[in-house]
């Protein structure tokens, strides 16, 4: 499990344009992905990690939130790239909204059982969804179960 408490815990980052990824000491530690463009469905910022999935792996679970501001609006998705280099969308683009002064944490899960026992690369991607309203996206925990 990656609890993101004190640093990025091995998650690498990539961005396009004005995208950013940073570790914040908020609510026990989070990774913040942020960026804007006018291409809906194109990631602005993302994190990725190569993972040796245990033979018993069933799901990847994440704890995620939009920015803690009224009007916050961000899209995110989860992808997996297998040993052969083929990309698989595990959780398609989902739009999350925010509320002033509070993170609205959501738990999400996706099956990884088809890749159990193999090495894969997981990608968590942020997109501004074309709204340009506080497009920050937060990840506080990632687990393989």
Report on the architecture of this protein.
- There is one protein chain.
- This protein has a five-stranded antiparallel sheet, with no helix packed on it. It has a five-stranded antiparallel sheet with strand order 2-3-10-5-8, with no helix packed on it.
- It contains no helices and ten strands.
- The model has no long low-confidence stretch (mean pLDDT 93).
- It has strands at residues 12-15, 20-24, 30-34, 45-52, 59-66, 73-81, 87-97, 106-111, 119-127, 137-144.
- It has 145 residues and is mainly β.
Give unreliable regions as ranges. none
Structural class, judged by helices and strands?
mainly beta
Note the main sheet.
Answer: 5 strands, antiparallel
SSE order, one letter for each helix or strand: EEEEEEEEEE
Helical segment count: 0
Strand tally is 10
Shape: globular
Q: Going across the major beta sheet, what is the strand order?
A: 1-4-9-6-7
State the end-to-end distance: 9 Å
What would the average pLDDT be, to the nearest integer? 93
Which bin fits the share of residues in helices?
A: under 10%
What percentage of the residues does DSSP assign to strands (E)?
Answer: over 45%
Nearest-angstrom radius of gyration? 14 Å
């Amino acid at each position: 499990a990656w609890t993101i408490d004190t640093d990025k815990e091995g998650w690498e980052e990539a961005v396009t344009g004005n995208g950013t990824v940073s570790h914040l000491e908020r609510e026990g530690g989070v990774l913040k992905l942020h960026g804007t463009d006018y291409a809906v469905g194109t990631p602005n910022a993302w994190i990725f990690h190569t993972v040796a999935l245990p033979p018993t792996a069933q799901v990847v679970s994440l704890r995620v939130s939009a920015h803690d501001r009224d009007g916050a609006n961000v899209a995110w998705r989860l992808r997996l790239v297998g040993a052969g280099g083929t990309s698989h969308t595990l959780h398609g683009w989902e739009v999350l909204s925010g509320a002033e002064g509070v993170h609205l944490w959501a738990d999400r899960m996706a099956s990884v059982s088809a890749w159990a026992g193999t090495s894969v690369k997981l990608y968590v991607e942020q997109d501004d969804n074309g709204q340009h309203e506080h497009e920050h996206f937060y990840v506080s925990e990632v687990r393989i179960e």
